[in-house]
Every structure is written in C-alpha cells, then in structure tokens.
Write a structure and sequence with these properties.
The protein is α/β, with parallel strands linked by helices and about 280 residues long. Helix content is about 40%, strand content about 10%. It is built from six helices and eleven strands. A seven-stranded mixed beta sheet has the order 1-2-3-5-7-8-10, with helices on one face. A two-stranded parallel sheet has the order 4-6. It has a two-stranded parallel sheet with strand order 9-11. Mean pLDDT is about 80; it is low at about 10-15, about 30-40 and about 185-195.
Length: about 280
C-alpha cells in the first residue's frame, strides 16, 4: 500500500488511463447523438453538410432516392434514369431552394408531385426529359423559376393553362416546342405527329400563344361539335325506334284484322226460324 508521497505518485500514475477512458466514453456518446440527429446520406449520393447540398448526379438512379436529409437546400438528380416523380417524393424537404431533375427519362408527374415543395424553392429544372403533358395540379402553387425545354410536349389547352401559371425561365422559354398538338376544326385526327404537316408542330409554344393561337378555344369547339354529333346520333336512333315501333304495330294490326276476317260468320239456329214463322 502507498502512503503520503507514494500515494500521490500512485494516483498521478493512474490518472492518464482514467482520463483516456472518460474521453472515449464522451466521444462515443456524442458520436451516437450525432448519428441520431444527422441522417445518413442516401446511397450513390454525396452530401455536403456545410452547404446543405446533395449530389446524386450520374448515379444510375431509377427513382427518387430515400433518406435525403430534410435540411437539404440544393438537390442534384441530373443525368439518371428516373421516369416518374411520386407525390410524396419531396414532402420532407421544406427548405429546398434548387431542384435539378434534367436529363432523366421523366414522362409523368403524379398528381401534386411538386405540391409539397415549400415557398423557398427558387429553381425547378425539368428540362431534357420525356414529358408530353402536365397540368397545374401537378405543380401546385410553386413560383420557382421553371425550366421545361427539350421535352416532347403535346400542345393543348391544359399545357397552355400551365404555361400561363408557371414562372418560366425567360432564357429557355423558346425551347418549349410543340412536338404534337390538337387539331383545329375539320383537320381529321386530334393528334399530330412529327411526320405530319400540322401547322403547330415544331413551333415554340410561347410564340404560338403570342400570335393569337388559343388551344382552349379549339378544344371548346371540338367539344361542342362532339356534343352536336352525339345529340344527332341519339335523335336519329329515337326516330328509327319510333318508325320501327309504328310499323311493327301496323303489321300486328293487319294480321289481327286478317284473322278476324277469316273467322266464320254466325248462322241462325232452327229454333229462331220456327219462332219467326209462327209469328207470321
């Protein structure tokens, strides 16, 4: 046993080991605490926590990855193979300011897919995809600067209403080209393809709208004509049914009359003849 100075020396000899053990415990505690409050970065992505930026570019992704940190400000998902954006894809990213989705294969947006994006969103890049149709319901009330160029758009009333709602990027707005469009009255099929000679195919949508083209009026005319055609068909069917019904009744009445004529006429019985003779 140690006493006096010997005890002090023993205590000082044991202290470095105890301090090291305490430091290890504290480090493990804060490491576990950091792991709980700071979510992990999604697979195939790189997360820069100092700038709250997540890079998932050229990652071979087929869908929006899960586990994106909720504090993300800038999200890069360019050059992947994403085809669809589900409704809840960005529901937790309330601080998102820049969303890059260009050079994918996106051909559809779920209803309200971008509705959960907060008012802080400044840029939405959906260029170089496979979008043909989109509506205001899918974009929600976002006022972010939006890029929609280099998509095979079908120009119709729904797309026209969307263009009038979104805050399109002025530098790229002329890149929104009609690859197909609704036809006017008497133009045959409702859809045009790139090989046809449709007057709107291959033209920027914004220039068409500025020149006075109104796809919504074309759609209303098409709807009105369809309603008139439907009413005419129903009216024609009613007339045909009435004519058929009248002719069928006439045939039945004619057959009944012929049957009555074919019946033998009633003859007088001998009793009645004798009675008449006795009376005279």
């Amino acid at each position: 046993m140690c006493s006096g100075r010997c005890e002090e020396r023993c205590t000082s000899a044991r202290r470095p080991g105890a301090d090291l053990q305490t430091w290890l415990y504290v480090s493990l505690f804060f490491s576990s605490l950091w792991g709980q409050v700071s979510p992990q970065c999604p697979d195939s992505c790189q997360c820069a926590r100092d700038t709250a930026t997540v890079h998932c570019t050229d990652a071979g992704l087929l869908e929006i990855p899960e586990g994106i940190p909720p504090e993300t400000i800038s999200l890069h998902l360019e050059r992947n193979f994403i085809r669809n954006i589900p409704e809840s894809a960005f529901s937790t990213l309330v601080h998102l300011r820049d969303l890059y989705l260009s050079h994918n294969r996106i051909d559809s947006l779920s209803s309200g897919a971008l509705r959960h994006l907060g008012p802080e969103l400044r840029l939405l890049d959906l260029s170089h995809n496979q979008l043909k149709q989109a509506s205001r319901e899918e974009f929600g009330a976002t006022r972010a600067k939006t890029r929609l160029y280099h998509n095979p758009w079908h120009c119709d009333c729904t797309l026209q209403e969307l263009m009038e709602t979104l805050n399109l990027e002025p530098e790229t707005v002329n890149g929104i080209i009609c690859e197909s469009s609704v036809r006017g009255m008497g133009e045959g099929s409702r859809w045009e393809d790139l090989g046809s000679q449709g007057e709107h195919v291959g033209q920027p949508l914004v220039k068409l709208l500025d020149s006075g083209v109104n796809f919504c009026s074309l759609q209303r005319k098409t709807t009105d004509v369809a309603m008139l055609v439907t009413m005419f068909v129903w009216f024609f069917m009613v007339i045909v049914y009435v004519v058929y019904y009248v002719r069928q009744n006439q045939a039945e009445a004619r057959r009944h009359l012929e049957y009555l004529k074919s019946l033998p006429s009633p003859r007088k019985t001998p009793t009645e003849t004798d009675t008449l003779s006795t009376g005279f």
